Amino acid sequence: MAVPPRRRPLPPLCREAVPAARRAGSGRAPAVISPGRKGAAPPRLRPARAARSSDGARRAVTRRAGRSNQQDPGGTVRVIVVGGGIIGLATAARLAGRGDQVTVLEKEPDLALHQTGRNSGVIHSGLYYAPGSLKARLGTAGAASMTRFAEEHGVAVATTGKLVVATGADERDRLRVLAQRGAANGVPVRELDPVEAREHEPDIACVAALRVETTGVVDYRGVCAVLARQVGEAGGTLLLGRALRGARTVGTQVRVDVEEAGTGERHDLVADALVVCGGLHADRLALACGVDPGARIVPFRGEYFDLAPEAAARVRGLVYPVPDPRFPFLGVHLTRGVHGDVHAGPNAVLALAREGYRRRDVVLRDVLDAASWPGLWRLAGRNLVPGAAEVARSVSRTLFAASVARLLPGTTADDLHPAPAGVRAQALHRDGSLVDDFLIRTGPRQVHVINAPSPAATASLEIARHVEAELDRTIGSAVRGGA
Questions:
Q1: How far apart are the C-alpha atoms of 198 and 192, rounded to whole Å?
Q2: In the predicted model, is pLDDT for residue 39 greater than 60?
Q3: Which 8-state DSSP code applies to residue 432?
Q4: CA 342 to CA 309: how far, in whole Å?
């Protein structure tokens, strides 16, 4: 689940990435084109002849001639990556690092402003996920690779371990199942009795617990700054304030329709391949590019509170409840972040906007999109009682505090200070079942990351490897098929 940003002010990533690149000794910072530069074309792109569309004059922009390495070994592959969150940046850095000509499009004025920038910074161990699933394989590997990446690049990181606690006898069986799943995924898990659990967290309440040593915390914004720097060092370009409006594959090229923020100008960019990491808008972007997303994104807002200093002092690390197996959400938990702050949350309530971080945020199109999807009504019909409980906890700080007090006895509403919310992009099937794994769809010369909730940040470097393989496969298939 997405979680709130830290309360301390954070510099824009694209600005902090520039001096970071120079400190690294490369002398080369990311080429960043920001919104507001009317008519600015990406570096190494040249304007083509003017084209007209139904909404008026439109300038087409295309790259200089390049060659797919599937058609000419040693040639340069031109790849457009859409999305400036951690998955898009990890993918862009990986492709640029192998020699591809990469351009990153991000609709916002800075990077990592949505799910990545509203993340608590937890490095998940791989405990919760079905053995053999992408979440299990990439998440478990990602815990190691993300920790190593942060250490190598000077990003704040700590391997703290965590407790998963059963607060009632009825949760013991689920806790044992969780331990078995973790072991199947190669996660080091120890079962603890209450006395052993309190050696790690003296103030928690439980009847049994699991200790997972490989869980940690990291500054994901710092990770994104490094990835952006790597894209620039490899000759890539970051285009901010550029929104994808659609794309179509024509022969051995993908023509990408891009709109500039502020001016509303539209351009065509031409590449050999397209990767879309669209987060909260992934399904819509896939459809706009002619690819069936296979599911509908439904936004769930996760609301959080920061613990007051006195309550925060009673939490050493990470404390999680035993999750309800019916849902992909982990329940209200306690997390001490990499900067020492402790937050509690989340609940999980339907958001009335895909970027609806406040209760009053309502976007009619988003509401209609969710309401018209049969899967949402089927999901709601099967979960009326827990859904109502989530809504009640959303409007009552006292009820929220009661959930926290199950883990940390003595917590009251006065200990909870409101913190910014996050929104989880959850893919939902038509039959009402949740897409409980990473979902990646492909089309000719296109790869779309449709469903990438937690532990996607943890697994982002591994997801990038997976996307790279899918991209090579779809380009190869297009060439063999005569596309």
A1: 9
A2: no
A3: S
A4: 9
Quote the CA–CA distance of 229 and 252 in Å, as a whole number: 30
Rg from Cα positions in the chain: 23
* Bridge pairing between strands 31-33 and 237-240: parallel
Kindly report the CA angle at 479 between 473 and 483, in degrees rounded to 5?
Answer: 115
Q: Which amino acid belongs to residue 188? A: P
CA–CA distance, 110 with 240 (Å, rounded to integer): 6
The share of the chain scoring above pLDDT 70, in percent, equals 82
CB 339 within 8 A of CB 4: no
Query: pLDDT of 435-459, one tens digit each?
Result: 999 999 999 999 999 999 999 999 9
How far is 130 from 438, CA to CA, in rounded Å?
Answer: 12
Contact 97, 234 (CB under 8 A): yes
221 vs 460: CA distance, rounded Å: 13
Q: What is the DSSP string of 320-374?
A: EEPPPTTSS---SEEEE-TTS-EEEE---EE-SSTT--STT---HHHHHHHHT-H
pTM: 0.86
Integer angstrom CA distances of residue 414 from 27, 156, 401: 50, 31, 9
Residue recorded with tokens 């990311």: 30
Backbone phi, then psi, for 330, in 5-degree steps? -95, -5
Give pLDDT tens digits for 70-124. Answer: 333 345 689 999 999 999 999 999 999 999 999 999 999 999 999 998 878 899 9
Closest by alpha carbon to 334, among 304, 302, 309? Answer: 304
Can you read off the two tokens belonging to residue 23?
């400190």
- Locate 307 and state its tokens: 């613990």
Spatial distance between the Cα atoms of 17 and 28, rounded to a whole number of angstroms: 10
Structure tokens, 252: 């051995």
d(CA 424, CA 114): 9
Which residues does 149 contact at the CB level (< 8 Å), separation at least 6? 155, 223, 226, 461
What average pLDDT does the chain have? 85
- Asked whether residue 367 carries a pLDDT value surpassing 50, the answer given is yes
- Please report where in the chains the tokens 């063999």 appear, as a residue: 480
